[in-house]
Amino acid sequence: MTYKEIRKNKEVLAYLKKGNDNLGVLGFTDHSEVHCTVVAERAGMILKKLGYSDQDVEVAKIAGFMHDIGNAVNRKNHGEYGALLADRILEKTDLPLEDRVAIVSAIGTHDESTGGAKDAISAALILADKTDVRRNRVRPKEMSNFDIHDRVNYAVTEAKLKVNPDKKMITLNLQIDENICSMLEYFEIFLQRMLMCRRAAEMLGVKFKLTANGSKIV
Description:
Layout (H helix, E strand, L loop, with lengths): L2 H4 L3 H17 L6 H17 L4 H13 L11 H13 L6 H12 L11 H11 L17 H7 L1 E9 L4 E8 L6 H21 L3 E6 L2 E2 L2
Parallel strand pairs: 2-3
Antiparallel strand pairs: 1-2, 3-4
């Protein structure tokens, strides 16, 4: 089982679609195949730039693509539900047991309410997931109907994640339109996630830095 193959897996795609549809009804931002692809590619990029093996990169990408399938069951504890679903799906493949366990563990610990980085795979997944902040994650609606999560994502006009292995630094640079969302609102939503990123970076032996409109925040 490869990342390329898991992206075509009908069961995974069905769970992702149902989960994203469910969250749309609840008013959440996009958690679709698009988000999961961003997370997968980003998780792989992080480990590749930090010198991890091709196998670790592949495992991180599979975990990234599958990480939100638990939303099809329930948003609450979706990481744990997703881990159980992922295990059931992956046990039918030729993926080595050690890799399957690493993926299940990463998915089960990626949510900020109950999780935290335990190894390189879970750390890369957390960093990739929590830094996917962008305007087009907001579902189409009138701006007057935006909630705080919508405003926070829509206000981000530019987001760049940089991995510098020489300086042992991972940096998320954001440009935020403060006419849409105040800095206070932004950090009300994202501070816990950014602190989770800092701990995940430490697991990888690097530091995490967040800048917003040119100012260092974390």
